[in-house]
Amino acid sequence: MSAGGTTGPDGTGTGAAATAAHDGRRASGRRRWPVVVLAALFALPFAYDVVEAVSNLVSVPRDSRYANNEFFRENGLDGLVAEPPWVVLVLGVLLPVVAYVLALVVSRRRSLGVVALALVTALAAAAALNLTITAYVTSI
């Protein structure tokens, strides 16, 4: 090794450069845990949005198929029979997951405040879009 460092028996550096690198890794590990805790806390409302979307994915096709479509068929209104909006329902499930991952990717290696802002923005956008999807799907 250069800069006056030597190599130990296990091949790791024992000089000043190795000590500085080790201290840098230790400092970055100390700064990482608040971000991990923040990401874990924000995972809960995102998970709730996913559960809500899965609930729509299960209940909306059942309701529309049995309640509305049976009524329309019984009364000769076959033109009003509609299939569930599968694309919208699946997008509702994927949206919170994509928003969460995108917020973490965009805010990677940033300060805690930037990570929090990215997660809050992603949560607000995902919640607004999921609410819009829920209103659209339940009105059909």
What does this structure look like?
This protein has 140 residues and is mainly alpha-helical. The protein has one domain (34-139). Helices cover 77% and strands 0% of the residues. The protein contains three helices and no strands. α1 runs antiparallel to α2. The longest helix has 59 residues, at 16-74. The chain is rod-shaped.
Mean pLDDT: 79
- Taking pLDDT < 50 over at least 5 consecutive residues as the criterion, the unreliable ranges are none
Give the end-to-end Cα distance, rounded to a whole number of Å. 70 Å
The best one-word shape is rod-shaped
* Helix-residue proportion: over 70%
How many discrete structural domains? 1
Structure summary:
The protein is an all-alpha fold. 77% of the residues lie in helices and 0% in strands.
Helix-strand layout with pairing:
Layout: H1 16-74, H2 86-106, H3 112-139
